[in-house]
Design a protein that fits this description.
heteropentamer, A mainly alpha, B alpha/beta, C alpha/beta, D alpha/beta, E mainly alpha, B: 11 helices, 10 strands, E: mainly alpha, two-stranded antiparallel sheet, disordered N terminus, binds adenosine-5'-triphosphate, binds urea, binds magnesium ion
Chain lengths: 540, 283, 235, 403, 377
């Protein structure tokens, strides 16, 4: 272990010097020394690969980046026959091979000819650092900045030396700041330096939220020098204060995000159950159908995963909506005036639908990929980052909600369905096409459940039990908000989401769930008709 | 408030602590007055349904309550029977029962019966059972479990069935009755309960002329022993039973007096009767 | 206008209407009378299509209605004011009235965005209560709303089931005037079930007496005499 | 009887169907193959499939049905521990024989059950050894679904880690309900816990359905396997097939079998499986191998005993050997647990595992953990003279079952 | 006249089925028991122990269905959480049985059940104390569900929580208990629950005679509860209960404190559910938090609906039939039984609005009509 560290450091130092010396060297001169190394790499076992990589790094410069990246992503292959490496790429579902340096497409290669060069976690860590080291001199400021930040945790002498050398020439403010931070960290940790310098450095550090800074400061609280300890403590305190504020925002976001999931899951039910009065136990399965639709859509357009969502949303709406219309026409419409019995029938339907997907798609979960634009997170600062998929889903939930409210407010459907649910016969006598209204409304509610399925497929399992896991929550949200009140559903979903997420850190997930349930039970005692009750003489 | 004051307040001599008061005290009608409604106010989202309403009903009186649609008659009954909470005011039954802190069942058990404007009966039970349920009996859980119909009770029900003309339909489900029959059944439910005070909301709606007459007779015969408050828009009917008539308007009393006085009251004519009706619409 | 031929009607096992015949002439005001429970409401519901009839035929302007759903009949021009009002309780007064607008626009060929002003002229109280829930209205207000709601449809035939139940005298009078006015000015055909003789006499032009699910007497209103009343209306 | 009957007691509906259906198919495939080879003892094997529908009491009922009505000679079944615990009394009462193919918490050894899945010492302990020794992990998050298997495994691990000098503050334990789907706060806590300077890893005993949202959240919060590797004991190829594995590459799992291991046996097995399911995309996994080994051993034992009589087969089972699909030989020990190799694999973007570490030889399954105070002194030995599943080596007594 | 007969055959007839039901129930169970105990296993009339336990389980479910029907069918309170009471009763029994294991557990600890040893608990939690006494455990089996029902009902009915709000709250209740019992800290064995029981009152639970005895006791208790419930529901209290179902506010206006009626009926129903649970556990051999799962509670409602709600006999028949169907379907078509069961629910709802008992009523009405016609002719 130690031995390896030393060699590593040695080589890093070496390669840092090389940046300066050979920054203009050409690919041609390198490849001569590179090729055998690459061949070696292709033949090596995972555990023998690191030294080879160190050597590769030592003899090359920025031009090696594509190679390292390809390797990091697991796309580097080795052509045994030619003793050459090649990158495998995929565009629109087609795999092809190209030279990682020249980007020349090599059409003469088939899958059996090549072997994947596998990497493991250690190698990936190494590769990332190597890339960062190389990128310190990248032309793009943001790449340089990331490189510096990447290296914060690995500040060894040579890196520091490089940074010190690059620092005066750095023109970009942000990069310079990051470098300054790294250097300050270095200064702060050097016990041989003057105390006043160290304390000044610590003060600089106190404005950063980087984890590495905090870890360094924590170590410094055990420093031999009392003044340094005090300064470190003060700085830590300052950082903690800022971090706590962001932690609160973080938690709030978690709550909103959970709320948006609850909202999506229950909004369709707010229509079929809340407005129409159908105790729709098959609601969960409508969500499930939506999720499976997403899966099928992705199957049909494997090369356009990024766009598949845009197809999946309308498709899921149609599939679940049509299924809803079908159920309404075949079953629900015969149960008018018997709302409790809709529970029985729709429960039966939910069993059938579950078994149906189990038969068609197997009982196993299906794989739904996330579009690249929905993956990852939006890093606001080192302690606050919001995951993109959740952010989109939050926005999406609100959008669906608004659209729904508009549909119900601005079209006659909303009015008619309420009239029908309050007095079917009288609605008929007023010329309302009750059959049509019922079918459309149930279809709308189901369709929205389907859309919810698309969103949920991005977060959780797509399997036959998907619906089951949301049905109870959905009913809870609708009832807590007040049956028949869409706004209530919205508020209830977010209330429950936020409450859960603020409880969770102290109580743990299980207890939080229990407490929220108990809270709902007690709350309903105070407000027996939910958050937004239907008022008036007729409401009882 | 000083401690002394609050202690005094606590031990005021004119007050009995609720838990010391006898649970089912007789209704005290010492002043010949059975119902006191004072300064009653109630508004729904800013709309004043009852507006400083005062109303006193004598024991044994038959009082007609009229007033425009929406004047607050039904709402008043809602407040008296505990269905609706008022914003301010007092409602006393006799001198000793504050109705405002009692719930519907307690009020009913005190002897206040009500017929609703829209007939409400237990649709899935027979006419007979509807009446049995309304009998004046101990209505607590255990006594109800062990009670059996006594012959006198059965006779009582039979009597009432005859009175309301549903003897033939005694075993029919109440839900299958026509609108008018339900009205009668509801009156019957009131009768078997033998309440002290009857609040009757539009009893003759949907009844034929003869039935209306019969209802009038029935109600007149009840008065004296019982106190009856009737709300009705059928002026002919009101005239045939009324001794005192109170007119409500926009949540407060507009006029009170005999039928003749009322019929000639300009305000009443304007807001309620209309010229012709005041002149006495002839059949 | 509407003719009813040999209509039988059952509730479960009990027959309510027995081979009932009834002819409603266009532009008439026909008053159907009878004791409680003889089947008046049942008959009106059958005309409106809210109850399936067992046998017989109901036609309107020569076309059979038997197969038509209630909503179709609303489009064909039948307006219905049910006994017990049947207001949509959780809809506001305005919404209660708006429900009929699509039918109205189809029937009048204009496409009104708004509730016709004449409804509010007839029942001013509805204007004040426009944003209150129907179910919160007082009984009489609801009755007015029910009539107003039927008039929004601009019907050819208006079916009224005891429309004066619970309505204050001056408005009863007013409703009578409205019926007469619509009948006179727009030729509205009216089928009216009414117990109160005074009103029936004032408004009705024809009367039909019912007993045990059959029409037992029919004539002009002038000819409704005491013996008939004694025979069919007294208890 | 003219056939030998094999009962299949796996849930085909309900929450567990997702995992158990595959095992039902595996048993059916094994039965098929055996019949093609001429059956057993000259008789055809007949499979009797029932559906206990993920309902635990139904496992007992269906078990009884299989044993008394269908008179099966052996049962292959159960996944969750609770379902096993539910049938167990029935098996012991009616002297049935069951093969249990799933990794579990240990602390059990019945005369009537053979445990072909991993005990904690065949999965958990080697996995943390790997984390500590090879990855230099110093902090551990023990995350699990709140039920017995994770609780016990974590208890074992906690004791083990503390024994290795890991401070209590460097162990974070977290339990979540079944099917937990909102992992935001927990993953964020893990992230914080892991960013405090020491190399951190997550040891996951998260069950089935909760895994997909867990890994998705990991991916989205940008926790890469280099920063905080997750080593899971309940995530296999089948679970991964329902997941987009790109963001998960590099996370780990510890099993006794991976589909990616290239041996002739495994190749044959996978081929047979694809042929049987008529689907070349179907993956194989560890409980399938456990089922495979169990079935082979049972067939051998029946042949050896010359009868399907439970007592005879039970004795004949002990010492049975079957080649592992991953190489080496599995041995049935006296405690009804197997000796098997332990492998650690990294998730690849094709949903397969790349073996990154394996034990030198096989590890014998330990029915009673050496790291739990209550069971330190217990051993299981179903051979004479002890013949007991929970024999206390201190008191020299056998508690519980008396046969 | 026809109305009168209609009244006799419908309105007041609830008590009419009682005697035949009790007779059939008891004779079938006694015959089955005898056939199990005294006939040789190869006799065609032999009833296997498997069948006996299965029937015993069905009877427990029937009792549970009765409990659901009493409050749903008669009082209109749709409880989607009755499984909670059932499970609590079951846990009480399970705790007793667990304590009876004594030192025969795998760890041989005389005091602590295995799962506590295993989680390294040192002493018995307070709520386990006394559970080794049969009488005490049985008291708890009715008291705990009863008390929970009382507290919950008292809160909910007094605040006038009704309709779907109440249903969903009951669901929340059982769901919360489900999560709570899953927690190992609770001291009820977590997900694994309580199992591996050895004996009850000194009788070996595995013995056929014990199983038969449990089965008979279940049948007898079912009969007793049936008769008592019948009596209660045909008393005036029964009418009040129906009145509450019809129109609760109207009942209040004639002087009934409906909340109290509802609370007591709810408690009664919960106690029955608790008893059913207590009988269920020794027969199936395990109690686990899964019994709290909301889906289970929904299923109970469905048994009642299939049988015909508002008739006690319907509830019993529904429970027996649906569970029998489940047993058969899962064995005959393990891959497709959910289709069959689901379809059954849908079809029953569509074509038998009042459940099987409604069908029975219709058939009888038809026959009566035919007979009436004949007699008139
Ligand atoms: N819950 C409520 N919300 C809003 N307004 C209400 C409510 N209840 C009653 N009102 C209003 O209060 C007024 C009084 O109603 P009330 O029913 O007491 O009238 P009423 O005198 O009984 O009339 P009618 O003779 O028509 O029955 C009406 O205008 C009604 O719209
Ligand atoms: N839903 C029903 N089920 C069974 N029978 C019914 C039903 N509705 C009405 N009936 C019966 O049908 C008969 C006629 O009822 P209908 O309502 O038509 O009478 P009506 O003439 O309108 O009486 P009213 O003047 O009281 O309104 C009544 O005897 C009633 O008992
Ligand atoms: N044994 C398990 N994984 O439950
Ligand atoms: Mg009124
Ligand atoms: Mg009528």
């Amino acid at each position: 272990m130690t031995l390896r560290r030393i060699t590593l450091r040695h080589f890093i130092a070496l390669c840092c010097c090389l940046f300066g010396l050979f920054s203009l060297s050409t690919h041609a001169t390198e490849s001569a020394s590179l090729d055998p190394l690459l061949a070696e790499l292709g033949e090596a076992k995972i555990k023998d690969m690191e030294p080879i990589l160190v050597k590769i790094e030592a003899v090359s410069d920025e031009t090696i980046l594509p190679l390292l990246r390809t390797l990091l992503n697991g796309n580097l292959y080795y052509i045994k026959a030619e003793k050459k490496v090649i990158g495998q790429f995929e565009t629109n579902g087609e795999t092809f091979y190209k030279d990682v340096f020249t980007n020349e497409i090599n059409t003469g290669i088939d899958k059996p000819d090549v072997d994947k060069i596998r990497v493991n976690n250690n190698l990936r860590g190494y590769l990332r650092n190597a890339i960062a080291r190389i990128q310190l001199t990248s032309k793009s400021p943001s790449v340089r900045e990331n490189a510096v930040r990447e290296l914060l945790s690995k500040l060894d002498d040579s890196t520091v030396a490089t940074l010190e050398r690059l620092y005066p020439y750095e023109s970009n403010k942000k990069v310079k700041e990051a470098m300054g931070l790294a250097l300050a960290m270095n200064t702060a940790s050097q016990t041989e330096l003057a105390v006043s310098n160290r304390i000044a450095a610590i003060e600089t550090l106190s404005s950063s939220l980087e984890n590495d800074v905090r870890n360094l400061l924590t170590t410094l609280t055990r420093d031999d020098n009392a003044a340094v300890v005090t300064a470190a403590n003060i700085a830590l305190e300052k950082i903690a204060q800022r971090a706590n504020r962001f932690a609160f925002v973080d938690q709030l976001f978690f709550g909103l995000s959970l709320g948006s999931v609850l909202l999506l899951a229950s909004i369709g039910l707010a229509i079929t159950f809340g407005v129409m009065g159908v105790i729709n136990m098959a609601h969960g399965e409508m969500i499930m159908l939506g999720a499976y639709t997403t899966y099928v859509v992705q199957l049909m357009m494997p090369n356009y995963i990024d766009y598949s969502i845009w197809v999946a949303i309308p498709a899921a709406f149609l599939v679940s909506g049509l299924m809803g219309v079908l159920i309404e026409r075949l079953v629900i419409c015969r149960l008018h005036g018997r709302p409790l019995e809709t529970l029985l029938a729709t429960f039966g339907i939910s069993l059938i639908l579950q078994q149906l997907v189990r038969t068609i798609f197997s009982p196993l979960n299906r794989q739904v990929s996330s579009p690249s634009w929905m993956s990852g997170s939006w890093e606001i600062n080192p302690v606050l980052s919001l995951t993109l998929n959740r952010l989109y889903i939050l926005a999406f939930a609100l959008l669906v909600f608004i659209v729904l409210v508009i549909v119900l407010k601005k079209t006659s459907l909303g009015l008619n369905v309420r009239a029908v649910s309050q007095n079917r016969n009288m609605a008929k006598a007023m010329g309302v096409k009750t059959n049509w209204v019922d079918a459309m409304t149930f279809g709308l509610g189901s369709g929205i459940a389907g859309i919810a399925g698309v969103a949920l497929s991005q977060l959780t399992n797509v399997g036959p039990n998907l619906g089951q896991s949301y049905i109870i929550d959905s009913f809870m949200v609708v009832v807590f908000g007040g049956v028949g009140n869409l706004l209530g559903t919205l508020v209830a979903a977010f209330t429950l989401g936020i409450a859960t997420k603020f409880l969770e850190p102290t109580t743990g997930a299980v207890l939080a769930a229990i407490l929220v349930l108990v809270f709902i039970i007690l709350f309903i005692q105070k407000r027996p008709k939910g958050l937004f009750p239907q008022k008036g003489r007729a409401a009882e | 408030m000083s401690t002394l004051d609050s202690t005094r307040e606590l031990f005021r001599r004119d007050q009995v602590w609720p838990f010391l008061a006898p649970a089912q005290a007789e209704v005290n009608v010492g002043n010949q007055m059975i119902l006191y409604v004072e300064d009653l106010n109630l508004s729904f989202d800013g709309f004043k349904a009852l507006n400083n309403l005062n109303l006193y009903i004598n024991d044994g009186e038959l009082r007609c309550l009229i007033g425009a649609n929406g004047a607050g008659k039904t709402t008043l009954m809602d407040v008296i029977t505990g269905k609706t909470q008022c914003d301010s005011g007092t409602v006393f039954f006799g001198q000793n029962h504050n109705l405002l802190n009692k719930d519907e069942a307690e009020i009913a058990q005190l002897g206040i019966g009500r017929k609703f404007q829209k007939p409400t009966v237990f649709e899935e039970q027979t006419v007979f059972d509807n009446l049995e349920l309304s009998l004046k009996t101990d209505k607590r859980v255990l006594p109800t479990l062990f009670s059996r119909l006594t012959p006198t009770q059965i006779d009582r029900i039979d009597d009432v069935l005859k009175t309301i003309g549903l003897a033939k339909h005694r075993f029919m489900l109440a839900g299958a009755l026509s609108h008018g029959q339900k009205q009668w059944l509801e009156i019957g439910m009131l009768l078997v309960a033998e309440p002290r005070l009857l609040l009757i909301d539009e009893p003759v709606a949907g009844m034929t002329a003869q039935e209306t007459e019969r209802t009038a007779e029935l109600l007149t015969s009840l008065a004296g022993e019982r106190t009856v408050i009737v709300v009705e828009h059928d002026m002919e009917f009101v005239r045939s039973i009324a001794r005192t008539v109170t007119v409500l308007h926009q949540g407060s009393v507009l006029a009170e007096g005999t039928m003749d006085q009322i019929q000639s009251n300009k305000d009443v004519i304007e807001v309620y009767l209309g010229e012709e009706a005041a002149a006495g619409e002839q059949a | 206008m509407i003719s009813i031929n040999k209509v039988d009607q059952l509730y479960g096992g009990t027959q309510i209407l027995w081979g009932l015949d009834l002819e409603i002439v266009p532009g008439s005001i026909t008053c159907i009378m009878g004791r409680n429970g003889v089947g008046k409401t049942t008959l009106l519901k059958a005309i409106m299509g809210l109850l399936p009839i067992k046998s017989g035929e109901i036609t309107m302007e020569g076309e059979t209605l038997n197969k038509q759903s209630a909503e179709k009949r609303a489009y064909s021009g039948i307006g219905y004011v049910p006994q017990g009002r049947d207001i949509f309780p959780m809809l506001t007064v305005e919404e209660n009235l708006r429900i009929g607008l699509p039918v109205r626009s189809k029937r009048t060929k204009d496409s009104p965005k708004d509730i016709p002003e004449k409804i509010f002229e007839l029942f001013p109280v509805l204007k004040d209560m426009l944003h209150r829930r129907g179910g919160d209205l007082s009984g009489g207000q609801q009755q007015q709303l029910a009539i107003g709601r039927a008039l929004v449809l601009e019907p050819k035939v208006l079916i009224l089931d005891e429309p004066n139940e619970g309505i204050q005298p001056n408005i009863v009078k007013q409703i009578g005037d409205v019926i007469l006015k619509l009948n006179a000015e727009e030729g509205l055909t009216v089928i009216l079930v009414e117990q109160k003789l005074g009103f029936a006499r004032r408004v009705g032009k024809e009367f039909r007496l019912m007993e045990k699910g059959r029409i037992v007497a029919a004539d002009k209103m002038e000819n409704l005499n005491d013996s008939l009343i004694k025979q069919y209306l007294a208890v | 009887a003219d056939t030998i009957k094999v009962g299949v007691l796996h849930s085909l509906s309900g929450t567990m169907a997702i995992s158990e259906t595959t095992l039902k198919d595996t048993v059916l495939m094994m039965v098929d193959e055996q019949n093609k080879k001429g059956g057993l003892l000259g008789k055809k094997i007949e499979a009797v499939v029932v559906d206990p529908a993920s309902n635990w009491p139904l496992f007992a009922e269906k078990g009884r049905e299989l044993l008394t009505k269908d008179k099966v000679d052996v049962i292959f079944g159960s996944w969750t521990s609770v379902s096993r615990k539910s049938v167990l009394p029935v098996l012991e009462e009616l002297n049935g024989l069951m093969f249990y193919p799933v990794q579990y918490e240990g602390e059990e050894s019945s005369k009537n059950v053979f445990y072909t899945g991993a005990a904690p010492n065949q999965q958990a302990i080697p996995a943390v050894d790997y984390l500590m020794n090879d990855l230099g992990v110093e902090r551990f998050v023990l995350a699990g679904t709140d039920y017995v298997y994770p609780r016990t495994t974590n208890k074992v691990l906690e004791a083990y880690l503390k024994g290795k000098g890991v401070a209590a503050s460097d162990i974070m334990i977290n339990y979540t309900p079944f099917g937990h789907s909102d992992w935001q706060s927990i993953v964020s806590d893990v992230k914080k816990f892991g960013s405090e300077g020491k190399k951190t890893a997550v040891v996951s005993t998260i069950n089935g359905d909760a895994n997909v949202p867990f890994y998705k959240e990991l991916g989205n919060q940008g926790i890469s396997s280099e920063d905080i590797p997750v080593v899971a004991f309940s995530v296999g190829e089948e679970e991964l097939s329902g997941l987009d594995t790109k963001p998960l590459v590099g996370h780990l799992a510890a099993w006794n079998y991976f589909q990616s291991v290239e041996t002739p046996e495994n190749e044959a097995f996978i081929k047979a499986w694809h042929a049987y399911t008529k689907n070349s995309d179907r993956v194989t996994n560890d409980p399938m191998e456990a089922t495979y080994i169990g079935f082979k051993m049972w067939a051998n034992a029946v042949t050896k005993a010359g009868t399907t009589d439970v007592d005879a087969v039970e004795q004949a089972m002990i010492g049975q050997t079957v080649p592992n699909l991953t190489g080496g030989i599995a041995v049935m020990n006296k405690n009804h647990h197997l000796s098997k190799p332990v492998l650690i694999g990294e998730i690849q973007d094709d949903g397969q595992f790349e073996v990154v570490w394996e034990t030198d030889g096989v590890v014998a399954g330990d029915a009673w953990s050496d790291f739990l105070p209550g069971s330190k002194d217990l051993i299981s030995d179903w051979t004479a003279p002890i013949k007991c599943g929970n024999y206390n080596t201190k008191t020299k007594t056998c508690s519980g079952q008396n046969y | 006249m026809t109305r009168l007969t209609a009244w006799f055959s419908e309105g007041r007839s609830t008590g009419k089925h009682t005697l035949p039901f009790v007779v059939i129930l008891l004779s079938v169970t006694i015959l089955a028991s005898a056939a199990n105990l005294f006939l040789p296993a190869d006799s065609i009339f032999y009833v296997s122990t498997y069948t006996i336990t299965l029937l015993g389980k069905y009877l427990c479910y029937a009792m549970l269905a009765l409990a659901v029907d009493i409050i749903w069918g008669y009082c209109g309170i749709l409880s989607l959480g009755h499984g909670a009471f059932f499970a609590l009763g079951g846990y009480a029994m399970g705790m007793y049985l667990m304590r009876q294991i004594g030192d025969r557990g795998v760890y041989g600890n005389p005091l602590l059940p295995d799962f506590m040893v295993f989680l390294d608990w040192k002493e018995l939690p307070w709520f386990w104390l006394g559970m080794d006494q049969f009488w005490f455990a049985m008291l708890m089996a009715v008291l705990v569900p009863g008390l929970l029902a009382f507290v919950f009902g008292w809160l909910a009915f007094r605040s006038r929580v009704t309709g779907v709000y109440l249903s969903i709250m009951t669901q929340a209740l059982t769901y919360a208990l489900l999560l709570a019992f899953f927690r190992n800290e609770m001291g009820f064995g977590g997900n694994n629950g309580l199992t591996d029981f050895k004996e009850i009152l000194g009788f070996n639970l595995q013995a056929d005679s014990t199983r038969v005895a449990l089965f008979l006791i279940t049948a007898i208790l079912l009969a007793v509860i049936f008769v008592i419930s019948q009596k209660i529901l045909s008393s005036r209290l029964g009418k009040v209960v129906l009145a509450i179902r019809d129109s609760e506010s109207r009942s209040r206006f004639i002087g009934y404190r409906t909340d109290r009626y509802k609370v007591w009926l709810f408690v009664y129903s919960a106690v029955i559910a608790g008893i059913a649970g207590a009988l269920y556990v020794p027969q199936v051999g395990i109690i686990n938090p899964g019994e709290f799962s909301p889906i289970n509670s929904i299923e109970m409602v469905i048994w009642v609906a299939v049988g015909g709600r508002g008739t006690l006999i319907g509830a019993v028949i529904g429970a027996l039939l649906v569970n029998y169907a489940k047993t058969r379907f899962t064995a005959i078509m393990p891959d497709a039984w959910l289709f069959a069961l689901g379809a059954m629910f849908v079809l029953v709802t569509l074509y038998l609005p009042k459940g099987l008992m409604g069908l029975y009523g219709q058939l009888k009405a038809k026959r009566n009509a035919v007979m009436n016609k004949e007699s008139q002719a």
